[in-house]
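Rotation project, supervised by the postdoc (A.L.). Task for the rotation student: set up a whole-complex structure prediction and record inputs and outputs verbatim in this book. Inputs entered:
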Amino acid sequence: MISLPPSERDLHAYVDQQLPESDRRVLETYLAAHPEVAAQVHAWQQDAHVLRAALSGALQQPANPALDPALIRQRIKQQSRRHFATAAVLLMAVSLGGLGGWQAREATQPPMLPMADAMQAYRLFAQDGVLPADYHAQGNATMQTWLDRYFNQAQRLPDLSQAGFTAVSGRLLSTEQGAAAMVLYEDRQGRHISFYIRPPGPENNFLPRGSRSADGLLAEYWSGGGYNYAMVSPQGLPTTPLLQF
Amino acid sequence: MHELDEQLRELIPRLRRFALSLSRNASSADDLVQSTLERAITRWADKTVDGDLRAWLFSILYRQFLDAHRRTRRYARMLEFFTGRDDVQPSVERTVIAQSTLQAFDRLNSEQRALLLWVSVEGLSYKEVAQILDVPIGTVMSRLSRARQALRQLSDGEMTSPSLRILK
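Outputs recorded:
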């Protein structure tokens, strides 16, 4: 409810038709009795009216097709797609760089062959006799007990006694893929066969059963029970067909 | 396809008029409208305050204008600094004594122009204007009162001191 005489704010609210109906009527009665205030209000109304008329022309501008919302929406989408594409290109460059680097590394290094570490261990310990053994066995049974201390649910050690080989020593090794163990078998002529066990590594490189030979050594490899295995023996050893596990 | 697009399309003439009254230049007005629409479309999903779409768009446009205006002024100052002179001289046209309401309107400052357009021409409520300007309703009313007085005086050709005629 407005109070009389009306404040200037009330007068503006009246001009702007923002007074409640009852207030508007009260004010109109007041204005009828006060011509000088009415003249002021009328001038404001007139200004507003003239302004509305003067600015109405600006509503009739010829349409600007660039302002169509659908078009703008499309443009925004294209922009974000372009940003996305830029990001993708950057990502690709990084990946290619990384991949290229990786491939270059592979090109300059000998390719990773399956269980190459088993063959390397054989050369070091069975052929060159480097480093004393961590464990000397008194037979297959004790050897198995020793191995089971380090590897849960590892496969049983093969029995090579028919070929004249018995497990003699065990060595623990550290490899890129994790802790490994090599059990060495020996026959009466001093020839060696190794049993090698280690985890598949962080990338879980399990192997299909296979074999390969290199530098006079034969490696048979396979995976099972969460480990990778290899049997390494000198090439041409007549016992090889006996290695059935 | 988009319900918003249809509503926006209907309001475009009003946005262009408002932009024109602020920038006084048709092409920069349309640039202003375009960036307003872009912003509205991208922000539509996040718009939490519901209310008059028109008031919301006006407020986006007004902010864009103020930002652009500030940038231009900074640029003008920089230009002045490097060239050693003020390139923004009032034109003859600008110093002509206001003869009509429209000319008087053009001489008001941008906030006064916006206020009068919102209230007198577009018929927004004081509350909506208060939300756009982020000031109390009382402040809106006293600023509106000053804008009306200024328009009145300019229309009557009473205020002719150069300091008030020169526009930014």
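Student's summary: Residues 106-111 of chain A have pLDDT under 50 and may be disordered.
Supervisor addendum: The first strand of chain A starts at residue 135 and ends at 136.
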